[in-house]
Amino acid sequence: MNNQYFDLIDQSYYFPQDGFDLDGEELTFHGISLKYLIEKYGTPLKLTYLPKISMQIKRARNHFNRAIKSLGYGGKYHYCYCTKSNHFSYILDEVLNNDVHLETSSSFDIDIINNLYQRKKISKKKIIVNNGYKTEEYVEKIAQLIKIGFKNIIPVCDNIKELELYEKYIEGPCKIGIRVATEEEPKFEFYTSRLGIRKSEVLSFYQDKIANNDKFQLKMLHFFVDTGIKDSIYYWGELKKAVKTYCELKKICKDLKAINIGGGMPIRNSLGFEFDYKGMIKEIVSLIQQACEEEGIPDPDIFTEFGKYTVGESGATIFSVLGQKQQNDSELWYIVDNSLMNTIPDSWGIFERFILLPINKWKHEYTRVNIGGLTCDNSDYYNSEVHENQVMLPRFSNEDEEPLYIGFFHTGAYQDALSGFGGIKHCLIPGPKQVIVTRNSKGNIVDRLYREEQTAADMLKILGY
Ligand SMILES: Cc1ncc(COP(=O)(O)O)c(C=O)c1O
């Protein structure tokens, strides 16, 4: 048979590839036998492979440091982890093993910082960039961190009025940043991002409110292109504009030392994904260097706040296919044992695509399918892969002894935060169990259950029954 699922993958992509291989007819993920995990824990199951997080951080840091060295760039590189992409303590613990800095987005994030400090995971020297629209509560908590001796807290002004809150609560002295609003991609609904301060107001804001204010030193200019880092005219245009603003500011503000280019580093969302991380990073560093050289100012330190890039590729979400429904001659549905809307909300909310692969039955014939979730919502489906407009999976028979298992891979960022881990789910479909996999000092794989599947009692309690 040459229309086996295996042949389809073998002919369409380089396979095996980083993180994905077969053990006999079954898929492994970073050397983990997924079949073993399914037999041990059952499905649906969310899994996090922690070592991938450290690998990602080391890779980006290496590329930046090498680019800095080879270009003779004068500034330093700082890797910040943006906590909003995955807040779990086991994630933060892994991230912090790599001595990275942190970026917060809201008031409760500061409670996480306090907790990390109390558990001795961070010291008061840690650089903590506070982004997001500042509520009074958020600023009060930031001020408290500074008061107890955190030396490198950098609240970033998202709007001009925000400085009044800093004045009110922060005793000073305090380093601060300014976020400059980017122009949105031409196809987007708005011209200018609502996040940050308009470019035309940044210089006057600094001159009027910060330059002669003893309490605050402007250390960082921040910008973030929401559609991510990519080799497009739009991205390079926005980066150039931000660096130009940095240069203009630097000429009137000697304290300014750093440019923060935010997050947006892409991750593999298809087996065919290709991205030249090394080349892209070198280009970013080189662009900043050239612009600064032209303006005669020193190279700034470069900060990044990679969220999805740090944690996305560590996650996988695994389902059993409960049954199949042929709804007309061409539409075959595979119904999985949870909801796609609930477990990978990005897939229906913003049409994010993930790597989708079967765990078993690789030698079966393949067929085009739509994948349906258990909720009664019309939108609870997944039916297209990046680049391909369709999803192919192995055929199976209802008489098969073993069900077909499928996995969505690289689901480690944002999905739990958006879905609301442990809360009330659409159609009361419970949140899946969560399993953490890591390697011990001998390099052997070690797995543990982090949370059982939600129970009916949990949900009814939240609902007041
Ligand atoms: C200010 C800021 N920094 C960093 C990030 C992280 O982006 P990503 O997860 O794409 O790296 C975001 C995401 O919304 C953000 O708003």
- Could you give the count of β-strands? 21
CATH topology name of the largest domain: TIM Barrel
Q: What ligands does this structure carry?
A: pyridoxal-5'-phosphate
Which structural class do the helices and strands define? alpha/beta
Low-confidence stretches: none
Give the overall pLDDT as a whole number.
95
Instruction: Determine the strand fraction and express it as a percent band.
Output: 15-25%
| Rg, Cα atoms, Å | 24 Å
Looking at the overall shape, the CATH architecture of the largest domain is: Alpha-Beta Barrel
The shape is globular
CATH superfamily caption of the largest domain: Alanine racemase
CATH class of the largest domain: Alpha Beta
Number of domains: 2
Note the gap between the termini: 55 Å
Sum this structure up briefly.
This protein has about 475 residues and is an alpha/beta fold. The chain contains 15 helices and 21 strands. The mean pLDDT is about 95.
Describe this structure in words.
The chain is 33% helix and 23% strand. With 465 residues, the protein is α/β, with parallel strands linked by helices. The chain has two domains: 5-51 and 312-462, Beta Barrel (Lyase, Ornithine Decarboxylase, Chain A, domain 1); 73-306, Alanine racemase (TIM Barrel, Alpha-Beta Barrel), CATH 3.20.20. Strands 4, 13, 14, 15, 16, 17, 18, 19, 20 and 21 form a ten-stranded mixed sheet that branches. An eight-stranded parallel β-barrel has the order 5-6-7-8-9-10-11-12, surrounded by five helices. A three-stranded antiparallel sheet has the order 1-2-3. Pyridoxal-5'-phosphate is lined by residues 82, 85, 103, 131, 224, 228, 262-265, 305-309, 413.
